[in-house]
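Both lines are given unchanged directly below:

***
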Amino acid sequence: MKKFFPLLLAAFLLTSCNGWFFQPSAYNPPTPFLPPTRTPSIVTATPAVVGASTATPIVATSTVTITASAIGSTNTPNVVSTDTPSLTVTVPVLAVGVEVLGCNTSIDVTHGMGEVTNAYVTLTNTGNMDLTNLKATLFALDEGREHPDKTVGIALLPGAQAVTVKLTVDSTYQAETPIQVEVSADGGLFQRVGQDSCRDIGIFAPDPGSLKTPVPVNP
């Protein structure tokens, strides 16, 4: 206690020099207050798309031709469009081809006739329209009475089809018989095909079951 008092007195004397009991420390200016620095945000503007659609666009194409005179010229080149459709007009055609395959002779007792001449004829529709009410008629220069099979009719012969018929006339016994075949249909008379002497068809006569039956023409 006796030592503490002199120490306290000495301390008091030292502080009384400037009036402060606790001496200030060396000057250290305070750090000014600054608001925290914020990292600026970077915003990339996304362009607004109005009426955007995911539909695949339709691109119209056209073939154009630029003439040679337009190359190297400052003038607007001539453009020739190839989009103009071509118009095809089909003209109706009625036509028939007539071919006499050959003839033979026979005795027709059924109709009370002697010798008759049979002609085998092929008719072909060579037009682009159907032939209706097609008729073929056989004539002979020495013809006697009219035979029932002198004329044969075909109701319909479509285009690109052919039909073979057998025509018969009453003819002179064992004599050369000049013949003619006349063909007609709806639309008028087509033609007459004649032969001075119809050759003997022999074993090449068509099958009777195939007569008057239209068949496609071989290309």
